[in-house]
Amino acid sequence: MRIFSRKLALGLAVAAFPALMATSVPAARISNPVAVFAGIDKITGRITTFDVYIDETVQYGALQVTPKVCYSRDETEAQRVDGFVEVDEITLDRKIRRIFTGWMFADSPGLNAVEHAIYDVWLTGCKQESDVPPPQATN
After folding, report:
1. What is the pLDDT of residues 26-48, one digit of tens each?
2. In 6-56, which ranges are E strands?
3. How large is the C-alpha radius of gyration of the chain?
4. Which of 5, 6, 9, 92 has a Cα at 20 to 30 A from 111?
5. Which residues on neighbouring strands pair with residue 83, listed in sequence order?
6. pTM for the structure as a whole
7. Which UniProt keywords apply (predicted)?
8. Which has the closest alpha carbon to 101: 73, 66, 62, 132?
């Protein structure tokens, strides 16, 4: 009888699952024009926070950081900030080498942070505005 009870309970839970899914609405992603990064210079131990506009490239030490998208959720949802980022390294012979392309997650900075011999960079947030002026449009 105990096995039957477990199967019945499991069957009821599985039957109720579609109804639960229909009532929950996933949080909408908010696309932001500014990505916020933190970087550490391992030689000096200095941590720097910097804003980068989407599709803008900013140099941090020997790294060039270019966010492609930066998503957050609205204030009613738990924040899950993620962004798609490209990072290039300027080598000692002045060549540019791509060292990272992928998603960064602000709530898990160790998951996809850029770890370089001297500099580490990770996404910390997204925002709609910045005190930094936007890049000039090129014609």
Report:
1. 667 899 999 999 999 999 999 99
2. 30-31, 34-41, 46-53
3. 21
4. 92
5. 70, 104
6. 0.75
7. Signal
8. 66
